[in-house]
Specification:
There is one protein chain. This protein is of the alpha+beta class. Helices cover about 40% and strands about 25% of the residues. The chain contains 16 helices and 23 strands. A hairpin with a 4-residue loop joins β13 and β14. The protein is flat, with a radius of gyration of 42 Å.
């Protein structure tokens, strides 16, 4: 850094003098920065046009799809029993449907009050409700099974949370209402495959706590491993594994493979087993009261054994890690009960169908069954004139919005005297003054732009031209469906006659569709055979490509588009000129510093001479 002497010897304001010299020299740099700013504003103006074109193009693309002109409306004359909505594939006409049975969840409900209401509510201990001993509860649903350990000291709230925490595995949940003092078990889905299956080795859990009437004894077996997982569900099966092992579990002709690696926790493995096809067959894995892995088998182990093998050929044995090198098997007898869901059963035009839910589809119609019917409902399917009208209106509105906005930009007045503000000028102005100035400085930057103007003219011509290639006598122009252009001064704005348009849609839906969606088979020399939407999408794509080539997009690098390259050239010139001006400023200070040094030397000599003459 240059040491700058600032006029102590000469008494001159050197900083002020250098600043004035540099202000004059910086004028070309200021102009370069202003030219770059104008170019950046102009680029952004083109990008704003591109955004408006893109928004319209998306709407026009939708209008190319014939499915948008096939909207159907469907009504039921018994909506309190069954509702219906139509899709594009529905066939117009009248149909009959009857609901003979609605789909239901599987459910189990306490037959009498549980008794917790008179005690401590959710904080009531299970032993106080009649649980005779610590036991297990196996919950089965359409997703799988899960077994939880239940203790006399557990509270009602603890039991409910333990059951519901396994709902993702089983597909069954339970709730308890403190006012009604009843349990409510339910499956997560409807249909005949839905179920709630409860089994416990202690019948008092079913009868005394849940207040459900259990069925007869259910035979089975329990297979318990010898390995204790000290940290419970979070214990890793074998954290020393270096290679993932494949654990295979088979039951009743079904086998499922599970991957066990160094990160596998026993709780996650149990959930995977219970949520698999093995679990759906009734086999349940769980950690018993001693944190040992156990399986409950719905059949006697000697009749339908659970087979556990390690399928990986190496020195590791994941079966031993689980404690099943010498498993302990015991007969198991449980009490419990089960409930199954119901399918919806309907008759559609005399044909019977079953569905797992009350929402189903037939021939492009979406139904929702609400209750059983004693008589048939009449379903009427017709052309949805209003929906098609709304789509065309949206298209016209978006077109008018697009050309109105862009024409306004092309017609903006240009204020050549309003150049971009310098930092010094900004510092002396208020915010509203700056905003007003820049609004004029940015105005008219793409006024009468030939590329954009030509594209808009192309849009207008496409909308007013006949669609060739359509059958004789068919609709071929917008004016034939009640859509016309305004005055010349409105530059192509479209107007809709709602009555005429709806009449055309109702009476000639296919012809209205063809007017927008027709294609000429890819003719590159002419678009006269294309539908109106097809034409506009192609023209919008062409304009967007041209705009991107010229002005890029927000994600473009400057070197990839024309204006960006010019901005890059400005940056180089600005950088070079800034370096030159920095050198010039340093030169001025060096010159003034040299002057100050000479003056100091002269003053010193003068003082010395004066001293010599004074002493003589």
């Amino acid at each position: 850094m240059v040491n700058r002497i600032t006029g102590l010897a000469s008494g001159m304001d050197i900083d002020s003098m250098v600043k004035k010299l540099m202000d004059a020299n910086r004028i070309p740099l200021t102009r370069l920065n202003q030219q770059k700013t104008v170019l950046t504003w102009q680029r952004d103006a083109y990008r704003a046009v591109n955004t408006k074109i893109s928004d319209f193009r998306n709407v026009a693309f939708d209008m190319k799809l014939s499915s948008n002109f096939n909207s159907r409306t469907a009504t039921s004359d018994t909506p309190d029993s069954i509702t219906v909505s139509g899709t594009a594939t529905a066939t117009e006409g009248t149909y009959k449907i009857k609901v003979n049975q609605v789909a239901e969840t599987a459910k189990l409900t306490s037959s009498t009050a549980v008794g917790a209401k008179a005690l401590s509510g959710l904080d009531t201990k299970l032993g106080d409700l009649g649980l005779a001993a610590d036991t297990t509860l196996t919950v089965g649903g359409e997703k799988g099974t899960a077994t939880i350990v239940v203790k006399k000291t557990d509270t009602l709230d603890t039991l409910i949370k333990a059951i519901n925490n396994k709902a993702n595995t089983t597909g069954a949940k339970v709730s308890y209402d403190t006012t009604l003092d009843h349990f409510f078990f339910a499956s997560s889905s409807t249909g005949s495959a839905a179920k709630v299956d409860l089994q416990s080795e202690d019948s008092s859990l079913i009868s005394n706590v849940f207040k459900l009437t259990p069925g007869g004894a259910i035979a089975g077996s329990t297979v318990t491993g010898t390995q204790t997982f000290a940290d419970g569900a979070t214990t890793r099966v074998n954290k020393g594994l270096t290679t993932a092992q494949t654990l295979r579990i088979g039951y009743d002709g079904k086998t499922v493979d599970f991957t066990v690696d160094a990160t596998t926790q026993i709780g996650n493995l149990i959930d995977q087993i219970n949520n698999s096809d093995i679990g759906k067959k009734g086999v349940t894995a769980y950690l018993d009261a001693n944190n040992k892995l156990a399986f409950t088998n719905p059949a006697d182990q000697s009749v339908k054994p659970i087979l556990i093998t390690d399928q990986t050929s190496d020195a590791k044995d994941v079966v031993s890690d689980l404690g099943f090198a010498a498993p302990v098997a015991a007969a198991r007898s449980t009490s419990g009960l089960a409930s199954s869901g119901k399918d919806a059963i309907i008759e559609y035009n005399g044909v019977t169908g079953t569905y797992a839910t009350n929402t189903f589809s037939i021939n492009g119609l979406n139904f929702t069954a609400k209750k059983v019917m004693s008589t048939e409902a009449n379903i009427t399917v017709s052309q949805d004139t209003d929906a098609i009208y709304d789509k065309i209106k949206t298209f016209v509105d978006k077109y008018n919005e697009m050309i109105g906005s862009i024409n306004s930009t092309l017609d903006e007045k240009q204020y050549r005297d309003y150049t971009p503000l310098t930092d010094e000028q900004r510092s002396s102005m208020k915010e509203d003054e700056i905003a007003a100035w820049e609004a004029k400085a940015k105005s008219g930057l793409i006024r009468n732009d030939q590329m954009v103007s030509s594209a808009l003219n192309g849009f207008r011509l496409s909308l007013s031209s006949v669609v060739s290639g359509l059958p004789s006598g068919d609709i071929k122009q917008l004016s034939q469906i009640g859509i016309t252009t305004g005055t010349y001064a409105e530059k192509g704005k479209l107007y809709i006659d709602p009555t005429a348009l709806k009449k055309a849609i109702a009476e000639h839906p296919d012809e209205v569709s063809a007017l927008f969606t027709a294609t000429d088979g890819g003719n590159k020399t002419s678009n006269t055979g294309d539908g109106l939407a097809t034409r506009l999408v192609e023209q919008a794509d062409n304009l967007m490509t041209s705009l991107k080539t010229k002005a890029g997009t927000s994600s473009s690098v400057d070197s990839s588009y024309t204006m960006g390259k010019r901005i890059g050239e400005f940056d180089k010139r600005i950088s070079a000129m800034s370096t030159l001006l920095d050198d010039m400023e340093t030169k001025y200070y060096n010159q003034f510093s040299a002057m100050e040094t000479y003056i100091n030397q002269m003053n010193a000599q003068s003082a010395y001479l004066s001293q010599q003459f004074g002493t003589s």
